[in-house]
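Hi both,

Apologies for the delay on this - the queue was longer than expected. I finally got the zinc ion-bound model through. Below you'll find the protein sequence and the ligand SMILES exactly as submitted, and right after that the structure tokens for the full complex including the ligand.
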Amino acid sequence: MNGHDELRMMLGGYALGHLTPAEEDRVRAHLDGCAECRAELAEIQPVADRLGLVDPAAHADRPLPAPDLGDRISRAVADEIEREGRDDLATARDRRRRVARWGAVAAAAVLVAALAGGVVGRATVPQAAPVPTEPIAVEVEDGGVTVESAALVAHTWGVELRLVGEGFADGETFRAAFRTTGGDLVPAGEFRGVGDASMSCFLQSSVLREDVTEVVVTDDDGALVLASTLADG
Ligand SMILES: [Zn+2]
């Protein structure tokens, strides 16, 4: 598994076509022998493909990504710009590498990184109308957790879970995922518990609403925290 960590970082750039031919060859050679990276690429590629087809003029109609995720990427971009400013000798190749690195975090992050970082200079305009949400019934398995509201948003690029609740153990990492009609469990991101305080999470996936049959949130140990079996989308 030589170079796995480094090559895994390049998958976002690979999916978006941002790598040099030599780098693409390295990634391809690694993919041949690494099922983990192949699985991650399979997850990232549909979002990257959709980005490639995006018409810049249509961007104004695009729903903005979750506010917290956007903030995180914005900070990463700001940090990157600061680093670039300090490093006058950085080559174009280095810069391209850094851009590629942002893209590999997760499918949702690829989307945001490309909007915020990869397509620098393009303004995104908040959509005028509120998006329609679909309330879902949630079964809570973790006695400490209370769900105030849970809803899905069927975006054109994938489905989003909007979760408001409290009692998610302070400092613990929770992971959301969508079960597809094919039975696969596709990650929709993670969030950190803040204990008794109320928290809102926007968890996004490139899976389309119509292909989702179940929403699952698990804790640090992989134990089920809450689940929702969905009606047909
Ligand atoms: Zn690998």
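Main takeaway for now: The beta strands are 133-135, 139-140, 146-155, 158-166, 173-180, 185-192, 199-205, 212-218, 224-229.

I'll put the files on the shared drive as well.

H.
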